[in-house]
Amino acid sequence: MSSVDEVPTTTPRRIVPDAGSGAPRAPRVPHPTVAERVAAGKAARAATPRSSHAAFEPDSDRPDPIELLEGQAATRVTELVPIRYGRMAVSPLTFYRGAALLQASDLSRTPSSGITVQLCGDAHLSNFGIFASPERRMVFDINDFDETHPGPWEWDVKRLATSLAVAGRERGYPERERRRIVRAAVGAYREAMRDFAGKRNVEVWYARLDVDDAVSRLSGLAPKAVVNRVEKGVAKARTKDSMQVFTKLTHEVDGEPRILADPPLIERMEDLAPPEQREQLFESLRDIMDTYRGTLQFDRRHLLEQFRLVDVARKVVGVGSVGTRAWIALLLGRDSGDPLFLQLKEAQRSVLEDFTSASQFSNCGERVVNGQHLMQAASDIFLGWFDIAGGLDGRARDFYGRQLKDWKGSVDVEQMVPEGFAIYARMCGWTLARAHARSGDRVAIASYLGSGDSFERAINEFAESYADQNERDYQALKDAIKDERIVAVEGL
Question: What is the domain extent for residue 87?
Answer without folding.
Answer: 40-237+418-482
